[in-house]
Amino acid sequence: MAPKKVEPKKPEPKKPEPKKEEAPAPAPVPETPKEPELDLKSVPLEFTADQIEEFRDAFTLFDETPTGEMKIRYAQCGDVMRALGHNPTNADVLTVLGKPKTEDMNTKYLDFETFLPMLQHISRTKDQGTFEDFVEGLRVFDKEGNGTVMGAELRHVLATLGEKMTEDEVDRLMAGQEDANGCINYTSFIKHILSG
Amino acid sequence: MGCGVTKTSEFNRKFDKDGNVIPAAITMKAAVLIQRWYRQYAARMEVRRRYTWNIFQSMEYADLQDQIKLYNFLGYLMDNFTPPSSERNLISHIFRENEVCRDAEWERYFSYTNIDVPDIYSGPRLTFPLDMDQAADLVEAFKKKQQLHSRYVLQLLLETWKLLKVLPNINRVSTCHSKEITICGDLHGQLEDLLLIFYKNGMPSLEKPYVFNGDYVDRGKDSIEILLILFAFLLVFPGDVYLNRGNHEDHIINLRYGFTKEVLNKYKLHGKRILKLLQKIFSWLPLVTVIDQRVLIVHGGISDTTNLALIARVDRHRYVSALRPPKKKTPSRTNVYADSERYDEMIICKNRRGSLTFPKPFGARESFQRRSLQDFSRAVARTLEEEFEVRRRQGEFSLSSFSKSHRILSSAVSSDSEPESSEFTDTSNEEWKQILDLLWSDPMSHDGCIPNEVRGGGCYWGPDVTEGFLNRHNLQLIIRSHECKQDGYEFCHNRKVLTLFSASNYYEVGSNRGAFVRLGPDLVPYFVQYQATSMTRGLSFPQNVKRTEHTALKVLREQLFVHKSDLLSAFQEIDKENTGLICLNEWASAIERVLHLDLPWRVLHPQLVSSTTDGRLDYHGWFRDLALKKPSSEHIEQTMLETLYRHRSTLETIFRIVDTDNSGLITFEDFRQTLKLLSAYLKMEISDEVINKLVISTDTNNDGSIDIDEFMEAFRLVDKSRLERGKSLLKLMQDNQETESPQPVYSTAPQTSQCPASQPADPPASNTTDSACSQTANPPALQTADSPGSLAEDCPASQTEDLCHISVVVPPQ
């Protein structure tokens, strides 16, 4: 099932900042006329055939339909993109999906052909947040400048700011990272995340 | 702002080390960054978890294919003897009917009264009739790793046998008032899981009825203990414990999947008799259980012809094994050429994929099931073309070598064989089919009912068949087991079919949960899930994923290795200019074609391929990486090595089949004939002289017969990973005690994990030390003992890690 056609909207800014609230769909008037519209149909696919095969394999891994119809739920779209090495925020993902309603996330399906232009669009996002940005981000919480952050503080921030994480997600992220004082050495923390 | 709401409140203000306020925007940006990296990490973890599961599932089904191959080999044995040939003795020896004694005589054979129990024995001493306390003591004893003395084993089994004989084929249970019934699925010898169930749910009693849905044995290491516990409770609470038969309650299947081995190892003196008695007990296990006339509990499933009225009437004990349809009482003159007509209807399976969601039609269902071992002994005349069709469908053998041997034998066969009838009436055949369907079938997602060629028995049945069946019998739910599920249970067919699996960590520590279900009078299922190993509690989720993944990939690499010759030909076909390079896409498609495993090869390739130049793979280098550390001896051909390694479970099973009295020994002559047939069948060309020398040299202890250790030693099928596992587990335990931080310790719990493509999960019975090597006077044997440094544990699975050592010691020509 193809997602709703995306109404003209401001696409997400090319920075990892949280976006401004989008105008509710369908808003025929773009909020900032300067920004180009996000029209998935016009996104040219620049992937090679080999790459597409690889994407297809990953897509199939997430296909839970009983007859292998090569469809994934909206809610899985972000995961598949990330599995393929991209780093969109949840907002980015919602944008390419056409700003679906929350209840649609688990009931609507996306097939492979529709997925590809979305992936292409995401892959173009220049500023994916580099490793250095990531380190910088953590350094913000390094109060004493000694290479550690307080686990409790990090938990709080991740669960309350930005694209909030659930308690489970935070637990999983931090499992085994805090030392006896509740501090996290963020260099090793980073290695932990990057090594996957 | 954005998806998460930001409160720019005092509470969220951050300060840097100089006490300056960090602007909220920066904090926000940092948070979002971390979150997005986390989400990418989580997605990658999820991918790994998913493909790991896929690997295990497809390997398991591939392993089932091996079973079919074994079956075919046995069929080949039957097909290719001629009355005058010397192999005939072996064949009839293997397949002779020995069920002619009456029960009274069997009771004498199973007598335990002259077995003395020494004073030093500290295990439970049972007195019959059993009571609740003794059953509980038995559980405690097994928890403490004690072993029940063979005297009590036999006695308990005899009592069980007596009880089972009066039970009907269909257990009927009711949930009166407040009684909840607990139902458990496959246990597969994993005692820990049963103990966990009893711990969480309480032991069986008048207030706590249980239904156990088959597959108590094989694969795990405590199958006999599970049986003894279940039988003990059955004897104490016959009205509250119900046992269904599973497809593994079958002595021929047990030969292959480890139960026979376990019993013979634990009960060296009386194991044979115990096994024989169990063979009978298995055939007397009830087939299905019905609760409140509304819920059907059966191990495998149903088919479009399943008829409970018929099931209620069969003599279930005549169906001893899936590989042995019943001998009829009176012969009838059925058309001896029925077989050949059937083959005309067969559809050739092209391009078989391991995927179960789209199983390919295999041909008339009767063809598989009727192809019994007795059937073969009637030497049906078939044309060469039909034979080719049969063999091509199974797809493994060189047609030329097959046809050569067939041509020689077929003329002899047709002239000498008598057109004796097959010994089936239609009734008994029908009953046979019904039982196989109950024990072997799997559900599928689309409508219809087709033969289950992956398993080799039963069928795949669709939602329409479920509807029809439930309506006809006025039922509302089918609870079945037979298939491993990640969460321990899974609904399908519009929640009318529930698959329940109670063996947690089935493929590997951390691979899946087990579950049991409780049904009260409202018949609404209440699930309890669990995971039995204490190891998993110490490991975090990512560690679990990593360990399971490591095992899966190792097993997968093994598979790639043993198919090297076929893969090489496939690659060379693509690489016509012989550059030694192919691109990844072609690599992936070639592997798909050769291995028939429906896996995401392109996603997996970074794990399987260490490096590529310009997106192209040097495949010779890749094979070297996959291969053994030490080069094999020049006498051994790669193909033969691979073939033997691939068939090593089969070889072991063959030994056990040849060893009909379960004595653990086979004669020289049997061994010689087995080798001859095996070599023809596996397209290995070894001359008679070589075989003779091999036979003699195999008897390393010079006692005039061949035992299982010598047999396996002859093929030198040593699995180093088994040795590794023992040490790795120790390391894992040490690591868990020492530190909290995630240690990438890659190991598999010995004997509880099951790598489907590798050896049966059992304590290594074969002695594979260097001393045994030196006794066989042969070209320099390969090192089988490992040098300690090479146990790769702390580094991520590298391609140079040893898979196994194989050497086939062939006497100089």
TrEMBL record, chain A:
Protein name, UniProt field: Myosin light chain 4
Automatic annotation (TrEMBL), chain B:
Cross-referenced PROSITE patterns: EF_HAND_1, EF_HAND_2, IQ, SER_THR_PHOSPHATASE
Domain of life of the organism encoding this protein: Eukaryota
Region spans: Disordered: 736-797
Biased composition (Polar residues): 736-757, 765-778
EC numbers for this chain: 3.1.3.16
Family recorded in the similarity comment: Belongs to the PPP phosphatase family.
Full protein name: Serine/threonine-protein phosphatase
